[in-house]
Amino acid sequence: MTPPVLRLEGLSRSFGGVFAVRDVSLSVPSGQTRGLIGPNGAGKSTLFNLVAGLLRPDAGVVDLGGDEVTRLPAHRRAASGVAIVFQGARVFPGLTTLENVMVGAHTQVRHGFLAAAIRSRRCRREERDVRSSALAALERVGLTEWADVPATSLPLGQQRRTQLARALCARPRLLLLDEPAAGLRGAERSALAEVIEGLRGEGLTMMLVEHDVGFVSRLADRVTVLDLGAVIAEGTPAEVRRDPAVVAAYLGPEAVDAVAGGEGEPDARGA
């Protein structure tokens, strides 16, 4: 039986005696897009950082494709196939869009400093391969025509897609998306959603952390809901939006009666 791309077992992390993540277990099979939602302070960012290797858990296991990586730092997890698109626009000033994306292929490069200094045959071959991979990643996110433009001159939505292309250039087996739509306007959000839908159609395994439940519902196969650091619900987007525990966590216990009484599904956006 093929192991899941990501498995978390009993993951916990506290700060100053207060649990940010408490006993979280979940499994993400190959090709699935998993949404991770919850109200402010639910522990989403902490769990994301535990998966990425930016934080170490107090207890529990992080497993990637059958290999335990709980104690591996972020750069070792990147080499194992974990790529991250962080919240906010993070592009390197002074570099073109293509050059920004090429940075993402650093885990694929094997030549060292000396080979780069003397421009060895291996160095030149790997540079050609990296450039080719970066151009292919830009095509996947719809930015080919912007390849030679300074990345800092791009609108926010295109900068966010540049970050996504950079992550894709690493050829990840698990792509982590930390609120990729934050701060984007309607057209930019739609363009980004279309790109993520395309990656989902390609079978890329992804974990999507978002405040916007509607955005997650459009893209995720299954959704895990956190509140006060613990999992309170898991299921399809439609199932979790109707779950009384989820409605109560976002809008308060009184909203549960409103939904049960047929007054419509509450809008959990912005939590």
Automatic annotation (TrEMBL):
Origin superkingdom: Bacteria
GO molecular function: ATP binding; ATP hydrolysis activity
A GO CC term attached to the entry: plasma membrane
Domain ABC transporter, chain residue ranges per copy: 6-253
Coiled-coil region: none
SMART domains: AAA (SM00382)
Keywords: ATP-binding, Nucleotide-binding, Transport
Descriptive protein name: ABC-type branched-chain amino acid transport system, ATPase component
Organism ancestry: Bacteria, Bacillati, Actinomycetota, Actinomycetes, Cryptosporangiales
